[in-house]
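Q: What structure does this chain adopt?
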Amino acid sequence: MKIVLLPQAQEDLDRVLEPLFSRLIRQISALKEYPELGASMAGPFAGYRGFIVEFYRVVYRVSGQHIEIAYIRDCRRRPLS
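A:
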């Protein structure tokens, strides 16, 4: 399977510093072998899966032979109103 970072996910990842950056890359790379690694999401995110690495949530979906990373959210941020 090929991993594709959507534009928002790439922007999010560009803001992450080492050593957390490397941990995120390792976990995202593991999706190639274990695409169902993350828990299924519900509601407006139905069809997506997600997992946490420290305080970052990685949200993705499996689409054919691709894994699309939608975003990598810093969960410490205040929610948008």
